[in-house]
Specification:
Elements (H helix, E strand, L loop, with lengths): L2 E4 L5 H9 L3 E4 L8 H8 L4 E4 L7 H5 L7 E4 L9 H6 L3 E3 L6 H15 L2 H9 L20 E5 L3 H14 L2 E5 L5 H7 L2 E2 L2 H7 L2 E4 L13 H6 L5 E4 L8 H9 L5 E4 L10 H4 L4 E3 L8 H19 L12
Parallel strand pairs: 1-2, 1-3, 3-4, 4-5, 6-7, 6-9, 7-8, 9-10, 10-11, 11-12
Helix pairs in contact: 1-13, 5-7
Organism: Candidatus Curtissbacteria bacterium RIFCSPLOWO2_01_FULL_42_50
Pfam family, one: 2-Hacid_dh_C
GO molecular function: glyoxylate reductase (NADPH) activity; hydroxypyruvate reductase [NAD(P)H] activity; NAD binding
Amino acid sequence: MISVYITAKIPKEGIELLKKKGFQVEVNNSDKNLSARELKEIFSKFDAVLTLMTDKIDEETLAAASGRLKIIANYATGFDNIDVLAAKRRGVVVTNTPVSGQAVAEHAFSLILACAKRIVEADRFVRTGKFTRWDPMAFLSGQVAGQTIGIIGLGRIGASVGRIAYDGFGMKILYHDIDRFQDFELLTDAKLVSLFELLSVADVITLSVPLTFSTRHLIGKRELELMKNSAILINVSRGVVVDEAALIWALSTKKIAAAGLDVFENEPNIPHELLTLSNVVFTPHIASATFETRISMAKIAAQNIIDVFEGKTPFGIIKVS
């Protein structure tokens, strides 16, 4: 019988899919991340492992795998937590769960509006008993509609952000990517520009790039200095895409107006200096956390495993040269 280990609780739909195929499934039902030692032990005993992005699968972990391990199915779009080349050398397939970017795009816009309208500050103002009268000058903010949004990384998520911006708020769209997307340009009047121009012109800047060598600290002090003093920076990609020390400087000196962060450089650890700033809105890496998306991810991860053992090419296979 094919054995599958799932490193954390996921929606039951994915587990049921595996069980219907006759797979033996074991789930880590604790609320703690598995240690490196525990992961090594699991990798030595199972035919397939369904991992989370918090599971660091490195050369040492893979070395503990027996010849029976055939697939690591990552329950995430990203896969930078896995040494894909080391897996390939051992004949282990790595897959991800590339789902629709709509949920993440909606979350990005929630952060945009929360920052622009100072929602968290206003909420705290009311909760602490400071709302004693209506003040026509309190919590003044700029209008989002009609402003310019700069999208860095126009994949599924970036394109979804762009459609919401254009259709819902009539925003002007600039984007920066290694590729040009002419269909998107036709739909939204978007313009492909250099990173320099985007950072200099945009009122709102959203990050939706994968983590690669070239995107690590893509936004540092030099890039932040290019932004308008009124700019809002939104990160729903990977934490290390932004240099947090530089961001703290930009926010504390009011070099930029605000930031909305769903991801962090050293999750779950967040610098105290960042936490004390009032012009930041935080969420705990939940941009894709909708029922629909999480269930879809569970089904895709499970089907990726099934496909490998049925001799098929999985939908989410990560190809490396």
